[in-house]
Amino acid sequence: MATGRPDTLGAMSFGLLTGLGAALAWGTMDVGSALAARRVGSLAVTAGGQAVSAVLLLAMLFASGASLPTDPRAILVSAAVGVVGAGAYLAYFTGLRIGPIAIVSGMVAAYGGLTVLLAVIVRSETLTPLQALGAVIATVGVVMTGVAFDADWRRTHLAGPGVVFAIVALILFSVMTVGLAEAIETAPWLPVIALSRGVNAVLTCALVAVAVVSRHRVFGAVLSAPLPPSRVAWLLVVLGGVLDAAGLISISVGLEQAPTWLVGLASSFGPAVTILAAVAFLGERLRPVQWLGLAGIAVGLVAIALP
Q1: How far apart are CA 12 and CA 189, in angstroms?
Q2: CA 206, CA 232: separation in Å to the nearest integer?
Q3: Residue in 80, 95, 260 with CA at minimum distance from that of residue 167
Q4: Is 268 within 8 Å of 27 (Cβ atoms)?
Q5: Taking CA 257 as the corner, what is the angle to CA 255 and CA 263, rounded to the nearest 5 degrees?
Q6: Nearest residue to 23 (alpha-carbon basis) of 298, 274, 303, 279
Q7: What is the predicted pLDDT for the residue at 145?
Q8: pTM for the full model?
């Protein structure tokens, strides 16, 4: 008589890999988007990236012969995920532009831990005690990789102009992940994310139009940029859209087959990717606390992966 263990282990492994794939794509995207936002503004980065992502996903959808969801619940939930996603990306990129980048990135990374909590409360998912401990260790580790501490840790604080945006983004990314899992239960993943990203792109592009026409001071934080625009910045916006689509595909495939808490948590490890990229390509040196954070992620992953 066959048992469910192989299938369960397979789903866990697959979910972990797809979540890490999303983290790799989004972590790489964060680096380029932060640089681009300082030249064209966070609103332009958000709208441009989401438009590119939507075009790619809609092209994939129609090329596959599929169509957008027709079930009313699937349409409603997918559209709602798009609205939440628009707010999440705008808050995140604004926070990165305002900074401090290390603090904003580290705080937003905690959305993985909140996703675990929401998956248990909203979707009634369960974790073993060891997996719960691993989720906590990994969440703390990913925050530690992104937050730069003072030499005297007692003087370290999270104050900064981008912190409010980081908190908003943290909450919205968690809601978006759980909402995406709910939507994928009503329709295949590709129609869901194509509709969701389409709604997202329409909203952010409409917001750009309103901001540019009105020039109201409320849009100052998302329109302003400390550096002049450049062709490279716009290329980074396009690249960000491609990477965003890749990350969204990866997490959606995972959510279709694996627990939401696992895929969402693994997808939040993007700051670790950003840190490693900075070390490998920018010659930056990690502080001891950041190495400790990376070790925490590794330990947490091992605990999560154990049956």
Answers
A1: 18
A2: 24
A3: 95
A4: no
A5: 40
A6: 274
A7: 72
A8: 0.82
